[in-house]
Amino acid sequence: MGSLTSIYIFACVFTLTLWNNVQPTVENEFIANYSSLLLTDVPKTIPLHTRVLDLSHNRISELSISEFISLSDLQEFGTMFHLEYLGLSATMIRRSDFRYITHLQLNTVFLTLENFSLYKPQSLTALNTKSLHIVFSANQNFNFSLLYDGMSTSENLKIVNVRYTLSYKDFPSPALTLLKKIKTTALMLDTVDLEWPIILQIFLLIWYSPVEHLTVRNLIFRGPIGGLTAYKFVPFLSSLEQVMSLGVSMKALTLERVRNKVYYFNQKILYRWFSEMNIASLTIYDAYMPHMLCPQRASLFQYLNFSRNALTDELFQNCSTLAELKLFILRRNKFESLSKVSSMTRYMKSLRYLDMSSNLLHTDGAEEHCQWTESLKELDLSSNQLTESVFGCLPVNVNKLDLHNNQISSVPQGIAELKSLKELNLASNRLADLPGCGGFSALEILNMEMNSILTPSADFFESCQRVRELEAGHNPFKCSCELQAFVRLERQSGGKLSGWPEAYVCEYPEDLKGTQLKDFHLTELACNTTLLLVTALLLTLVLVGVVAFLCIYLDVPWYVRMLWQWTQTKRRAWHECPEERETVLQFHAFISYSERDSVWVKTELIPNLEKGEGSVQLCQHERNFVPGKSIVENIINCIDKSYKSIFVLSPNFVQSEWCHYELYFAHHKLFSENCNSLILILLEPIPQYIIPARYHKLKALMAKRTYLEWPKERSKRALFWANLRAAINVNLPMSFEGNEEENDVTFTDSITQPLIK
Predict the structure, then answer these.
(1) Which CATH superfamily is domain 585-729 in?
(2) Collapsing DSSP states into helix, strand and coil, what is residue 474?
(3) What mean pLDDT value characterizes the chain?
């Protein structure tokens, strides 16, 4: 193929390319990669079953049918009827280079022209392709014959690196007949660096050609500017009447990243030129454009995109000629006043979408002067400086409203109703709770992500019953009862939370940080205040009931009363006889017994202890209680004046109220004076079941302390009396002078045993 330098053949959806260094997978036996091997001829060792052949980046200058005839799966080069993509790189192009592929219906042809030296006019017209992509070297002059021929060859044309360093006077003007041959309807020029007169001439060619969509990216235009200042172009046609007779096909013009190297010219002429274009779509993106003029006559503009410029609030004020405009994009400019933006739209009777994102917008206190067009349905005010006052300056018929990334801290109550609003984006603001839907009765989609919501109100679902999707993730949730109630209501409402559960994580408290809300649970009792109070009240009543029962069962009031009487008796003794504060022991032992056991006490116990040598002085209530004092006081005094207390235990004893008093006070002395003053005599066995519950002290004493058991056999009674005497007055003199030391008494196993068996 003459000067063509490398080839890549792709069969099935058959492709031939010479510009991309493809690295096929080694596992595929149908791919043969011979790229970048400095080959001058097609290798003879290509596998016979090859379906994909890469010969790119070599030095092959010519291809012939004989080199591929044995590769039946690759197809014969001359009959590649399925070839769709052809990639070529070349230094020279002649019409004869395409003689083997002129019969093919190609989808795309890609030409890389590095160190390009020769192009024969009309060579590209030999190709039959829908799309043509031409890439020039960045350091060489653009060949305009390629532009003209390319526009006559394909419907879609893209040319990269359009430079011309020579004078614009050397620029070749196309013939009038060229317009009739042009096939291109979509043209893209990328990386354009030209003098302004050349740009004008190319533009005029395109403007009055069948081209419908023109895109120019990375445009730099330079001087001289003579044609521009006079607002008269030097066209290649004989007269303006001839041009107009051809009609205009242009529908959309896109200029992206425009840089002006002409520093002194009347910009108004340029703005007027753009504003008066009779096309449906105009995009001027990233051009540092500070202003644009209002069209002088009714404009056909339906789409305007002036993003990334320097436009201000003065744009299109009082402009009534944009009645057909439907979509208006002003992203990343320098607008400040929201009320002026609304004023800009009031004559745009067809405007449906307005993008004012990433500006400097704020509400200036003139909300009552907001005059939005009634046709506006979608409004993007994101990434500005708006606060909650923005809700007083919104178009009433808006369906979709984007307010994310502003400084809104609340949605005011009583705002003007937006009855048509279906989608609201309030993400990345300062909101502390979900808004109600009192003013948004038709709301269906709400975005509240990345705000300051700790515990969203569960009332939201009652207020916003028409909402079918709620995005509330990535907030600093405080895992509490209120939050659990919100999640529960959400689940009951049909799972409206978008991004659940990954985007919903506890931030507070610290011990739950990082826990997903789906894994956070509290009991009903912890979260229901009424239930908690009722439960606490019931538990309190139960506790009071249990305590009362135990008090009654264990006779606690009786013990309290006895303790009170003991205290009062001691207090009276302290105040009435201060000279006798030190107790003087008068008796060896105080005897406590039931009246029903008095016979044994009087006939056995007292006679045997008080008679003979070493007699014991006993305190008996019948002979030693002081008349005039209360029984309790007498009991206490007798116990205090006795070194020991002897208790005659029997079933009759546990039935006696006064015996219980005496045991209680003796036990109290045992602990208060830390002495071993109790002597227990078991006269008769006591069954456990007859011991009253309040006699728990008796049970404890009998279970832990040894006692003397009255023997039935007379032969054992002598030992009983000997042990009893020993327990009362071991090593004691007959007279009592002060406190006397007590020695422990060890009872033999023959006469001692536990009370409760």
Answers:
(1) Toll/interleukin-1 receptor homology (TIR) domain (3.40.50.10140)
(2) coil
(3) 79
